[in-house]
């Protein structure tokens, strides 16, 4: 055999050996890759967000609720006249302002205390929080569950520096029409999952500290009715709140200026141009003086809220 043929044969053998070794290497890498654990989106949520173990796995149902503004002049004249030690102003039938003749001491931490004694329909509201530096307590109206951040379903109680009640403002919704059939709701875990993966509202290290069912405004109709949608209220790190539509799963954007806008609305309603729409109850002061006192308190609160936001 000639030397050239032998060399060719060696080259072919080496090529075959190299191909074999390369194939072995590739097969081994594929095998190693197959053994690398795959992190699912559920695992990612579990690793990055704390408090998931406290979520309920229960399946819930709740109806859409059809409501309209509560007409105080039509439905609560006698109750307003019976309120102790206060003068009441009702504007546009649906906004109630009350100023106590003397500051009233009240123990808000005592579950036996009856807020309804001093505040009209006080038993229909649930405590939500306090506006820092403004000495204002916030209560949301309840219809079995709280109605989150609805300007037509809120009670604000204004305190003096000693923690006594000086005045309050409120609005209220009432149910109209036939009850809606209960709708199946997404589970609490699914709401958290959407907040983290879909809406990017949660970040690594966040702690889910509470989840509660409530209502959020879905749509306002031309006839003045408002449809409320079941909503998961999700508290994160004790202070942050997120709201997820419990039927469709989308989140509701937060309005950081909600309280400022609410107070501005209350001030505007007391303008002289709206005098024809104002009704007084238990009036002792001059009407203009009473409105001035109420407005001054609201303007002071508004200023404090703005200062807090700036800081």
From TrEMBL:
TM annotation in the entry: 6-26
Gene3D superfamilies: YycH protein, domain 3-like (2.40.128.690)
Keyword terms: Membrane, Transmembrane, Transmembrane helix
Taxonomic superkingdom: Bacteria
Residue ranges of domain Regulatory protein YycH-like in the record: 48-247
Pfam family, one: YycI
InterPro entries recorded: YycI-like
Name this protein carries in UniProt: Two-component system regulatory protein YycI
Organism of provenance: Amphibacillus indicireducens
